[in-house]
Structures are given as C-alpha cells and as structure tokens.
Amino acid sequence: MQRKKAVVDAKIESASIAKGLLLIHTGNGKGKSTAAFGLLARALGHGMKAAVVQFIKGRSDTGEEAFFRGNANLTWHVMGDGFTWETQDAARDLASARKAWELVCGYLQDKTINVVILDEFTYTLKYGWLTIEEVCAALQARPSMQHVVITGRGAPEGLIEIADTVSEINLVKHAFKDGVQAMPGIEW
Amino acid sequence: MQRKKAVVDAKIESASIAKGLLLIHTGNGKGKSTAAFGLLARALGHGMKAAVVQFIKGRSDTGEEAFFRGNANLTWHVMGDGFTWETQDAARDLASARKAWELVCGYLQDKTINVVILDEFTYTLKYGWLTIEEVCAALQARPSMQHVVITGRGAPEGLIEIADTVSEINLVKHAFKDGVQAMPGIEW
After folding, report:
1. Chain A nearest CA to B154, separation (Å)
2. Which residues of A touch B63 (CB under 8 A)?
3. What is the pLDDT of residues B155-182, one digit of tens each?
4. Residue A133: which domain range?
5. How many domains does chain B have?
6. Which residues of B fall within a CB distance of 8 Å from A42?
7. A154 conformational bin, left if phi > 0, alpha if psi -120 to 50, beta if neither
8. What is the number of CB-based contacts under 8 A between chain A and chain B?
9. CB contact under 8 A, B42 and A185
10. What CATH number has the domain bearing residue B155?
11. What residues contact B75, with CB distance under 8 A and at least 6 apart?
12. Please, are residues B85 and B154 in contact by the beta-carbon 8 Å criterion?
C-alpha cells in the first residue's frame, strides 16, 4: 500500500500537462451535483469565471442558487422550467432541451468562461433529445483551457471515453429510506 | 424502471421525519471533499451556521478556503499543520489529532451550529489517533437537528452503521494518470 502510494505520488509530481478538464460525476448516489457546486466554489475562489446550466425541471429556491447567485463571475440558468421527464408533450420537451443546449454551446465557444457546469445533463442523452455525437463534438471543440463538469446518472460510455476524470458515486444508504424528509441545506 | 421510480418517489413524498443527518462521503474517487463544500454552499444559502475542520495537513491557499472564508456564518479550521501521515514524530501526530478532535467536540455540543464538516476525518481513525467508540459517542450525543458531514477514504463500518446517508465515490478515471497536473479550481 505504501509502495502503491509512492508510485501514485511520483506520478502526480511528474504530471506537467495543464489543460481544461472534462469531469463527470455519475452513479446513483448522493453527491453528484453537490460535488459540482463545491468545485464551483473552488473555481470562484481562484477568481475564475463560471456558468451553471441546470437541466432538470427544478425549483429556484435552492440553497445553492441563493448562495451563488449574484456572484459577478457567475451566470446561473435553471433550464428545466419547460420540460420534465413525465410531461405528456414530447415535442415541447425536445424543443426545450435543444434550446438549453444552444445556450450551452455558446458557453462552450467562449474562452472567457473558465468552468461550465452542466447539472443533470445526462438525461438529455438518455431521452434522446441530444445525440452523443453532437455533444462530444461540442465538448471536444471547446477552448483548450476550459473545464466542464457534467453530472447525472447513467453517463453513456461515449461521454466517459472523452472525459479526463470520472467519479461514480454509489449509494450505500440514504436517509429517505428511513423516512427522513428532504432537509434544507442537505438535499436542496 | 418507471415503477421503481414511482415507488421511490412515493417513499420520498411520505417521508416526514426532520432530523440532523450524519452524511459520509467515502471511497477512492474524486469528489468527497468537493461534495462537502457544495453542501456547505447549500447550507449557507439557507442562512445556516457551519463549521469546517480540515484534518489533512493542508495548504491554506485553496480556492474553497478563499471563497468561503470571511462568511459571517462560517468558521474554517485547517488543523493539519501539526501532523501529517508520514512524520517521524508519532507522539506529535497523536497530540495534534486529539487537539483537533477537542475542537470538533466543542462544535458537536453547540446547537447554534447547524452543519459541521469534518474533512478527511477518516484518517484519524485509520491511524488510531481516535477510537471509533469515542467518535460515535460524540456524534450520537450531538444536537438533534445538527447535520454532520464526514469525508475520507475507508470509512470504518462502525461509522457507516450510525450514518444516515453514505455515498461511496469510486474512481473510474482520473486526469493525473494522463500526466495532467493538479489544476487550480479543480483539485485545489
């Protein structure tokens, strides 16, 4: 174990490439989005500029939005207003997802934006609103120093292949199974 | 899948217990601490009071510390100055760890603190500086509405047993393996 750690430490020390990273937080556990928001805090702490695009139909009364909104180096979009996973209007869902994607593409072409967070983005692929080909093409054509964080369950293999760092967050246990309600500050 | 989701949604809707939660972020992947910092943002966004105690000997030039420090509802301690994992002075390590733990115990008895984050805490157990019994006793005696987040690899079974929500973050891939250096905004 000690030897393995030494090998890893040596690798880290000799690492010299500086580049924009594509990070993916996937899996069924709690922490995918919260880890993205932690990274956002970290990036803003370094004076970086960031954009957050949230894809799930979402509340705008979350603690994270209240906390981050108003930061001069950050833009924050809740794009889910127009579509959910269970609406009866598939055409509207598709149109809303594509509109959100156009917004994302603008950020992926803007080298003044250092970090782009695509929260709950994987569902747009799962539901077929976007193709893996167009998404990978846009990600790979982005400014070379721009970091992108994608969160959501079931990240497809094609996305994992082009990513630099991928974490799979698994659920060992969750409080809601014991009847605990979604607590402010924890779940939203 | 749809049926499973409906069952889960029903469980979430009927969940009615409000309580302080013990969350654990463990595993070998990237995102354990960043998820804790995301949760911190979320909690501060709700006007909660929080304390962060970092146990690993650490730099104080991180993006997260720069970003969060100065928030009136937050205290932030980097306790690793006095001990590392590879020092030659085991007695000093133990004394430093115990001093950090005393500080933590103060927060765990203070009901005005809504969220306590113990970053990289599991190592204090791994190295035997604290016992699982004393840690579990202090956690279980804390104010009933206080949330605690513990991060670090190899969370022991005794800690997982008393936790409410546990996420295991596994490494699928990591950029440093491709020679990418620790990028500001991403790794620190």
Report:
1. 13
2. 41-46
3. 999 999 999 999 999 999 999 888 999 9
4. 24-168
5. 1
6. 34, 37, 62-64, 67, 185-186, 188
7. left
8. 243
9. yes
10. 3.40.50.300
11. B50, B51, B52
12. no
